[in-house]
Amino acid sequence: MTANKFKAGDQFPIIELPTLDGNNISLGIPQTGFDWKMVVVYRGKHCPLCTRYLNELEKLKEDFFKLGIDIVAVSADSETQVTAHMADLTVSYPIAYGLSIEQMQQLGLYISHPRSARETDHPFSEPGLYVINDKGQVQVLDISNGPFVRPELGVLLSGLSFIRNPENNYPIRGTYE
Q1: Among candidates 111, 21, 114, 108, which has minimal Cα distance to 72?
Q2: E strands of the chain, at which residues?
Q3: 106 close to 118: Cβ distance less than 8 angstroms
């Protein structure tokens, strides 16, 4: 597999996927009332760490909203898998599904094959998190090659609060070439 290195400051690509409410959502575009967007890529229904992370995000959702940051989660799971996963999730933010291998590669994500049919029936991405600013640029990103490494949501929230404060004039970091 060849993965693109997704860079801080890049424009987030246009990726439109379905959600369980029957609509499509453009991953990097904030919904009305928000000017930033956080895209949380998770491994899928088979991952208990993902379930815990998504449920933890729900508890902090209103705090992200107060900062003007909209939220969407996405995986390569099918509609059937996401529907079944909802029994274990307590989330009210949109969950998109059907992320293709090409889209995973476009985002620079690590992709894994299932260890067995019991895990899942398709290649899936390892965790990724993107915070897209009001110019459509990736302000903050975190890409992992395993389920055990993800940003701690409370620390992320605190950092984004600092970044969003206009008095701090905080630039996109990690752009040296």
Answers
A1: 21
A2: 16-18, 24-26, 36-41, 69-74, 95-96, 111-112, 124-125, 128-132, 138-143
A3: no
Domain annotation for the chain: domains and CATH numbers: 28-165 (3.40.30.10)
Burial class (CB in 10 A: 0-12, 13-18, 19+), 166: exposed
Tell how far CA 80 is from the center of its chain: 20
* Residues 64 and 33: beta-carbon distance below 8 Å: no
Unique residue bearing structure tokens 């499509």: 24
How confident is the model over 74-110, as pLDDT tens digits?
999 999 999 999 999 999 999 999 999 999 999 999 9
**Is-contact 75 99, C-beta < 8 A?**
yes
Coil, strand or helix: which one is 32? coil
User: Based on the number of CB atoms within 10 Å of its own CB, is 9 exposed (0-12), middle (13-18) or buried (19 or more)?
Assistant: middle
Region class of 140: left (phi > 0), else alpha (psi between -120 and 50), else beta: beta
Alpha carbon distance 95, 69 (integer Å): 16
The dihedrals phi and psi of 63, each to the nearest 5 degrees, come to: -70, -40
Q: Degrees (nearest 5) of the Cα angle 86, 59, 81?
A: 15
Residues contacting residue 137 through CB under 8 Å, at least 6 positions apart: 9, 10, 11, 12, 172
Give the pTM: 0.94
